[in-house]
Amino acid sequence: MPSPSVAAPDLAACAARRSRLAARLGDAALLLSSGAPPTRSGDTHYRFRPESNFYYLTGAAESGSVLLLRPGRQPASALFMPVQDERDVLYHGRRPSADEARERLGVDAVFPIAQLELELPRLLDGADEVYLPFSTCPMLERAAFAAIERLRAGDRRGEVAPTCLRDARALLAEDRMVKDAAAMAALRRAVDISAAGHVAAMRATRAGRLELEIEALLEHEFRRRGASGPGYETIVAAGANANTLHYTAARGALVAGELLLVDAGAEWELFTGDITRTFPVSGRFSPAQRDAYEIALAANEAGIAATTEGSSLDAIHDACLRVLCDGLRALGLVRAGVDEAIEEELYKPYYPHKTSHWLGADVHDVGRYTVGGRARPLRAGYVLTVEPGLYFPATEAVPAELRGVGIRVEDDVLVTPAGPEVLSAGAPKRVAELEALVGQG
Q1: Backbone angles phi, psi at 135, to 5 degrees
Q2: Which residues form the Aminopeptidase P N-terminal domain (predicted)?
Q3: Low-confidence residues of the chain: pLDDT under 50
Q4: What is the pLDDT of residue 2?
């Protein structure tokens, strides 16, 4: 394996994104916060991850910062950052100075964050609209509202207060839906590392190991290849634990004869992969497990085939449902035909969730799912997941050999003019591939 590289922001791409956004903002203003590290317990914190939209536009990873965009004015872009004292430098290391940040990030001005409420009235004066993320950053909302009230009070002096507040997340979501070249490169890297982690987990799987061990080995592989870590909480679910869709306890053991479901993705430059694979702990599927797995795999492949321009997430879901319902009928769990099973939702006890979500800087990425009351048509440059599954409750209605079994097969797919591109193809999913790989580490 080549030496891992260290992720670094594409600052030219961030500047291009700001320019694209400026064309849409017109004379409006945009405010975003990088956020603050959440408290873990007492006076300790989780590792800081900047807010996705803030990082998408700046490439800056400093906590407690605020970005202002005001196209056509001076400064057209400004960053407010905390000023360090000697104690902060001693405990947390040196941050870039104002001059360093301005030169490196390409913004017009950098101010101390303590001056936000002082400077904001001047910077918002005359803007009719202000975009800010609703209900996510009380500090930013307070500063914006205070600035608006200051400007309202200055009406006789010719100051003009904004009259309309809009949600910045909706504005940014549209830019993030179609991945630009830098976003796509980061996402490809994230998915490639995710696939390598899944392969490492498969090789390490054997009866007697703990779910927690597999999680640690998987995330070690992510970091070994340069990722910052997982892009979301890793799911390693052995046996019946796979029937809990977001199982993250990782306290169970791997038992011979059972299946292991792993749902995990690496984060690279704040873009994340999202792959799920299910495979036999002992390295061989039982006949019943294999039959059920092949149904889920066929549904996954049908959903991928439907991931084309002009299609939709609803169409992908329907393609998967038809395969799953036909398979449930073959297993004797649904007696109705496919159309009736879908219409009456007879599949719900075995497949209770949807099939797809957008993927990007957030694992459940931004972007509207419906437009004009209808499912959003797919465009080239959209990236989404295709993740059908089958989950068999431990009831008498289910054949004994399938009771408690949970299966999901999830891939990350790019919509292109030539058809779907499976970004996560590096993670094996066919029965023969899995049986040849599991436990061989």
Answers
A1: 60, 25
A2: 9-141
A3: 1-2
A4: 46
The region, left, alpha or beta by phi > 0 then psi within -120 to 50, assigned to residue 221 is alpha
What phi and psi values does residue 82 have, to the nearest 5 degrees?
Answer: -65, 145
E strand intervals along 168-265? 229-230, 235-238, 259-264
What is the distance between the alpha carbons of residues 256 and 114, in angstroms, rounded to a whole number? 59
- Token pair recorded at residue 246: 């977001």
Distance CA 58, CA 79 (A): 9
- Burial classification of residue 89, based on how many CB atoms lie within 10 Å of its CB (0-12 exposed, 13-18 middle, 19 or more buried): exposed
DSSP string, 334-377: --S-HHHHHHTTTTTTT--S-S--B-SSSSS--S-SEETTEEPP
Q: Which two tokens stand for residue 423?
A: 């970004």
Question: What tokens does 39 get?
Answer: 């408290």
Distances, alpha carbon 115 to alpha carbons 66, 153, 220, in Å? 11, 20, 42
Q: Which residues are catalytic?
A: 43, 246, 263, 274, 353, 357, 364, 387, 391, 408, 410
Q: What is the pLDDT of residue 5?
A: 66
**Both tokens assigned to 361:** 């800087």
What percentage of the chain reaches a pLDDT higher than 90?
95
DSSP string, 26-78: TT-EEEEE---PPEEETTEEPPP---HHHHHHH----TT-EEEE-TTSSSSEE
Nearest to 137 by CA among 231, 68, 64, 232: 64
pTM above 0.85, yes or no: yes
Q: Is the peptide bond before 75 cis (omega within 30 degrees of 0)?
A: yes
